[in-house]
Amino acid sequence: MADSTKLFCEGEAGWEDMEGSTNSFIGESFADFIKVRRIPNQNIVHRLRQRETHFTCPGTNWHVARSFHQNLFPNFTIVNVEKPPCFLRKFSPDGKYFIAFSSDQTSIEIYKFRGSHAAENVLFSREGELLSGTDASNDASQIRTSLFDTFFELLHTTSVAPNGEHLNRECSLFTEDSRYVIVGSAMYVPEEPYPYFFDMYQNNESVAPNPRSPLEDYSLHIVDMHTGRLCDTKQFKCDKIFLSHNQGLYLYRNILAVLSVQQQTIHIFHIGEDGYFVGVRSIGRFCYEDDELMLSHVRQEFNPTQQQVRPFRETAINCLKHRLLVFLYSRAKQDGSPFALRQFFQYFDQFCMLRMWKMQLLDENHLLIKYASEDVVTLRVQDPNSQPSFFVVYDMMSTNVVAVFENTSEELLELFENFCDLFRNASLHLQPVHFTCSASSNIYARQIQRRFKHTIIHAKYGGQTEAVKRLLAQLPISAQSYSSSPYLDLSLFSYDDKWVSVMERPKACGDHPIRFYARDSGLLKFKIQAGMPGRQTPPTARRLVAFTFHPYEPFAISVQRTNAEYVVNFHVRHCPSD
Hints:
Helix content is 27%, strand content 26%.
């Protein structure tokens, strides 16, 4: 009995030892497997030493250099900065110049940017993160008064708009070398004397103007920012061109495309080295440069009386529309089924009624053109993006249509998601310190787009088709409409894209500062305060804020608009004195 009791006690102790050793093994395994995430060293001296003493993977040196923006960021906001009587526009791609429009919108003002450190002598005694707009001290008032001139030096004021025309404050395009800037001006066509009928309708695809889309006289101006000289001006009389946000213009390297919605013509210009517009071709009624000459020879043979034939009276389909119809017919015929051909003939009249709405250059030879009904193009429809539309890829050299997609095409959406940078032409103006942040090159931007798509799919009256329409509504993408600032790069910083984003469009203004967190550590790096904090605004007032970030330096400008009142804030890098 004693021996059995002893054996039982030894066995129980053995099980306890085994259980203890097992728990210890499991604990050690979990300790090795689950490690507490270490925050990378944020000290800039340590990062500089690491860069000096450690090798990086080939091709990643610029990414390593870009990560230093997590140590140098705009950490100080000056509220309600006094500026000259002008409308602030944007920085040149090289960051050396800043352009603005005069208060009467007839002149362009060119400023030299002195650097984000220029105001350090003015702000040396200021501490904290904010110079409030309610601070009425003499020192604060002096800072607000002198700050704009401290950062910007006026180089040139060039009068560009002719009599009666006004510059569009949301239209500007910079050439690749940042030397020239293209701006647009417009003026409503007077009712007396009213333009001639055939000046309004220059071909058989011209659209009918209406009060929501009135006719205007347009002028495009190119200005040399080095000398302030107005180099050239190109006029478009009795036309309709969407200048806002560069929707009707597109600049790819030295090729400028201008879409005339009224005349349904795409004008192609070459920007010479001396800053002149050189006409290359006009795509619409004709595709080749000598098409009109050939047509005149044919008319001489079949019209011996030499009676004048107005293009508006022509019954033939214009060249560009003919290329589109040929492509659709060929695709239906290649399908091999009678149903495809019957469907083509069924919708033939609708295809003929399509009109060009928007366009962009994909490269020097290819255009992406968006077609829609005339009611959509002339803004008669309340929600144009929900209407049927087509995307056409056109080769200007061969004058052939390469591809046609509907605005519900999953194939086009996949191309857009995987090659978004090619649609944005993000390689243009790309200095070594400039990087893109899109759904095709950034996992965090792709996550935001997928979340947006998922929201539309599961929303009321949503679905997969509606999500595709909403995402493809971004195409064609306006030229130079995305910021290359590293502080908006989602691989470096995390922020709420509801209040600020890489796309340069006005956003709703929040009541709280916008917080920027470092992506590698999750630490709060800096805050941007838009508007005037603590100031009461009417509940019915719509507050919008537009951000202008420097291409690479820690400097940003926010302009808040409440009804007709503007508040300008500067967000700068400031190191308080000890």
